């Protein structure tokens, strides 16, 4: 009989895996962490994130005059999730309630005690679909980490590395799990292939898959934390919810590194785990090709303020409430129903300077580097932040022009579909601009812009004062071709509130746990159909903590 080598084996060294390992080592447990990438990739895709976290009734909110509560947040969550599956949504519903309680309770203190701090301005992401009981955040809840994704990773990685020095943690990099070892209906370990070394390969770069050997690890429990399917376009298309969102886009770009391939979902399902809600996913409509890519098809998301004019591929304005930053999946459906897989922002220099923020820790060096002086220069001073300005100069999706005819001509040069008609585009913009002459308007987007500026954070740093797009004083004009950017898997391995994996018959799969995106960030789909943003890293933390504490208590 093969002897147990550790108290737990954690599959995946991303954020959820590090959190689970941190909790296990706090309890003195021995952990083996296996990951198919090299040591440079510790923290996984969380390292590349903007580091936003969903918090409820926080000190940051209260200082800005935001009145929030667990009750309001739960109403928003449930209205957004739209849970409608009796069996598959049983555990996601429980996770949703537990997560909102965590976000309104000890989440901030838990992270604060580990050294995490937040930017004082709270962001308002996913502003919603237009009804109080529907999708969206009623108030700003997006708390930007001072240090972005690398800082979220650091606060868990450092104590795990200290535990490694004490002999509690073993990292086994370039170990790809191909099978769960099951004995007597319980998970007792993993086996797979060792891959050729690539120690010098930089973080995020696509690594080789050359097999040089095999391995087997036995442990008291297995915790799977391997992420979703974000870079596996074939699997995304296979599970694409056509009836709900429309035909899967032909052209997709990747918001996550190449190793986010979803392999462990199938491996766990084959071993007997319950995999639910696989048609639920979260991809962005504001993707742009990275002019300086790190991984293949590397995409960056524009996190926009509400003022850019959003046109479909034919040059028609998207129907309300499909405005920038409001309802991701509804906007996806609106774009794809045209038969094209891209759309356009049309805006001004004034708008881009104040309203464009780019996803990714590397696209926000001021916040990532925790440099107050650089932050003041890039966010408050005249001109667009450096990374945004670089995209306007080098990005293949950007067109900058001093007049509308030149702008439309440039848009047609990079169009993947119909040629845009100048007269039509001018009519669409002029009609909108005519609504700026008065402080009141019937235009729903301008109403939304005015509403956003009632919040001091948006007025000061996020939302431009409403103005006419064709006013030369606010130029030059800018157009951005927006592509579908792949990102998050909202379904996954079904888990109970201890992050223990369930079987299809509703019983617990002994010895097997899952956390993070591979578990739909908890329960197999805690977000339901829609996410409220700032909930992905937090879901990794919450589910990873639950898994680590549950296994540590055995």
UniProtKB/TrEMBL annotation:
Protein name, as recorded: FAD-dependent oxidoreductase 2 FAD-binding domain-containing protein
FAD-dependent oxidoreductase 2 FAD-binding domain mapped to chain residues: 7-537
Organism, as annotated: Gordonia amarae NBRC 15530
Keywords from the named record: Flavoprotein, Oxidoreductase
Pfam families: FAD_binding_2
GO molecular function terms listed in the Swiss-Prot or TrEMBL record: steroid dehydrogenase activity, acting on the CH-CH group of donors
Keyword Signal listed: no
InterPro entries: FAD-dep_OxRdtase_2_FAD-bd (IPR003953), FAD/NAD-bd_sf (IPR036188), KsdD_DH (IPR014614), Succ_DH/fumarate_Rdtase_cat_sf (IPR027477)
Superkingdom assignment: Bacteria
Entry annotated with the keyword Oxidoreductase: yes
